[in-house]
User: What shape does this take?
Amino acid sequence: MILNIKLNEIQELATNGKAYAEGRQFFTDGYIREMIYDAAKKQYQARIYDPETGDAITTITVNKQGRPIHASCSCDDFKQFVGCCSHLVASMLLAESTEINPGKKKI
Ligand SMILES: [Zn+2]
Assistant: This one.
């Protein structure tokens, strides 16, 4: 499964420029520990290592076309601010560029 989203859309969904830049860094530095695609739930789940706050768990739900329709993260930034946190940016960048294998294991 490949996430059906464009890079500029990920940038627009991010809380701000800082969240986007941090997310890109998490992605390029390989901080995404695991990512699975749950085909039954149409949901990506990922665990991202964050040196400041510890692990964050992201969930991205997609529609039939693979477009993201819902996203959430376990971190405080996500609860506090509008838009996608750095972990969600990293997760979307990975899912957009890599075929994610289906898995049922809850991360
Ligand atoms: Zn987060």
